[in-house]
Write a structure and sequence with these properties.
The complex is a heterodimer of chains A (230) and B (220). By secondary structure, chain A is mainly α. Chain A is built from 8 helices and no strands. In chain A, 38% of the residues are buried. Classes of the chains: A mainly alpha (230), B mainly alpha (220). Chain A binds chain B through residues 60-61, 64-69, 72-73, 76-77, 80, 166, 170-171, 173-174, 176-177, 184, 187-188, 191, 196-199, 201-202, 204-205, 208-209, 212-213, and chain B through 53-54, 57-63, 65-66, 69-74, 156, 159-164, 166-167, 174, 177-178, 181, 187-188, 191-192, 194-195, 198-199, 202-203.
Chain lengths: 230, 220
């Protein structure tokens, strides 16, 4: 138990901050995913063939390729791409992109693909009468989306978004391969320096279980709140 | 681009082997735990639930590290005959993947078992078919047919999961792509080619499952 004490001798405080880092990366990734989803959902639902193909390509490719591959591509390729762009503007030094940003972006792209599917399903399950009624009332297209469709879409997609959140939370463990110190990386370091991998990976597993358990509780509360009027 | 292809194909074979063996063991484990889950004994029930909760609530990477690095820490296991198996990263990966996919499969099969209409079982009972035969000849086939679409998704998730094997030194498709990246410093070529192969595999699995669904699909 002294291995988990706070302070210089134990790993308690390190693991605590690593847990906070996992939560931060997950939230950032989820937010980035929302942005991607809000861009690609309209594309997937659009009647234009070309836009449709673009939307479908995004979700199909990202959901058909390992998460690790996306992370490696951004981690190894991202630096090169940024340096190439910088060299066009006349900067030739080495640029290192923050591991947090790369990680959150990579996981965000992945969770965005799942969120897109969730939003698409939610919009499709909104009663057609809602669209027609708002048209009849002469509501503009943009306002129709923000005031009529979006609130209903969010309510309908909460149960599935909770799945996406769980996937995102677990995917953040993969960022550890790029060196960002979150739960997995910290346990790896601790296991290496104490030569007790069994204990530290069990702690990591327990931390993830606590996180998934707590987030389930919170999401259930949210669901009840959003369903109040129904 | 062409020169990296042979090594990536070698990796694809390993990925495929990992996938097939972990799906096979995972299906057996999943069926076993699904049967435990529909058992009425609360203790057995809780045990099966705990298993699936643990493996679905923690990242696959943690499970892989626990088995690969963690199990080697136990003196008792190191001295037993099991050491032959758990010192090999390849077998550790298969154990971790099988246990992981087993947990998801058990949930898929459980929900399939629970949605079987009472009428089928009652009909079998009224025809005098014994409980055991009803289970093996009626409940299991219906459950498998009903869970085909969800199981297809699980196979694709597992295909993506096998890429984690590269983290514990296995040279699967992902591992080969990493090696190419390190040797040539061409991340885009290496990873995009690997990505195309993964997409191709996903596409094949998707179509096979779709055909199976058409052939054996269960209509209620």
């Amino acid at each position: 138990m002294e291995l988990l004490s706070f302070g210089d001798t134990g790993w308690g405080d390190e693991l605590f901050f690593a847990t906070l880092m996992t939560i931060a990366v997950s939230i950032a990734a989820m937010a980035i995913g929302f942005v991607f989803a809000l861009i690609f959902t309209p594309l997937k639902l659009s009647k234009n063939k070309t836009l449709n193909v673009i939307g479908n390509c995004y979700t199909t490719i990202i959901r058909g390729v390992p998460e690790l591959l996306v992370i490696y591509l951004l981690f190894f390729g991202g630096t090169g791409a940024v340096m190439y762009v910088a060299s066009i503007f006349g900067y030739d030094g080495y640029i290192e992109i923050n591991a947090f940003i790369t990680g959150a972006l990579a996981i965000g792209i992945i969770s965005g693909a799942y969120s897109t599917e969730v939003f698409r399903g939610a919009i499709l399950s909104i009663d057609k009468g809602q669209f027609e009624a708002s048209q009849v009332l002469g509501i503009k297209k943009s306002i129709q989306f923000y005031k009529v469709i979006l609130p209903q879409m969010l309510r309908l997609s909460i149960p599935n978004l909770s799945n996406v959140w769980q996937i995102t939370l677990k995917d953040t463990s993969l960022i550890s391969v790029t060196g960002l110190v979150e739960i997995m990386r910290q346990s790896y370091i601790a296991a290496g320096s104490t030569r007790d991998p069994l204990f530290f990976y069990s702690v990591a597993a327990a931390l993830y279980l606590v996180l998934t358990f707590l987030s389930m509780k919170i999401i259930n509360k949210l669901e009840i709140r959003f369903n109040k009027g129904y | 681009m062409i020169s990296i292809f042979p090594s990536l194909l070698n990796g694809t074979v390993i990925t495929f082997k990992l996938l097939i063996s972990s799906m096979f063991f995972g299906l057996l484990i999943g069926l076993f735990f699904a049967i435990l889950r529909i058992n009425n004994n609360p203790l057995i029930n809780k045990f099966a639930y705990g298993y699936s909760y643990f493996f679905r609530g923690t990242p696959l990477l943690v499970q892989l590290y626990l088995i690969y690095y963690g199990l080697a820490n136990i003196e008792f296991l190191r001295n037993s005959f099991l050491w032959v198996i758990i010192r090999e990263p390849y077998w550790c990966a298969i154990i971790a993947f099988s246990l992981n996919t087993g947990a998801y499969t058990s949930e898929i099969l459980r929900s399939a078992f629970q949605t079987i209409k009472e009428g089928y079982i009652e009909a079998a009972q009224s025809l005098g078919v014994s409980k055991k035969i009803t289970f093996y000849k009626i409940q299991i086939p219906i459950a498998i047919k009903q869970s085909l679409p969800a199981y297809g998704n699980e196979i694709i998730l597992m295909l993506k999961g096998t890429s984690l094997a590269s983290v514990i030194t296995i040279m699967d498709l992902m591992g080969e792509a990493r090696k190419v990246n390190v040797l040539t410093f061409k991340p885009f070529e290496a990873f995009i080619t690997a990505g195309i192969i993964y997409l191709f595999l996903t596409f094949i699995i998707h179509n096979i499952v779709k055909n199976l669904e058409k052939k054996y699909g269960f209509q209620t």
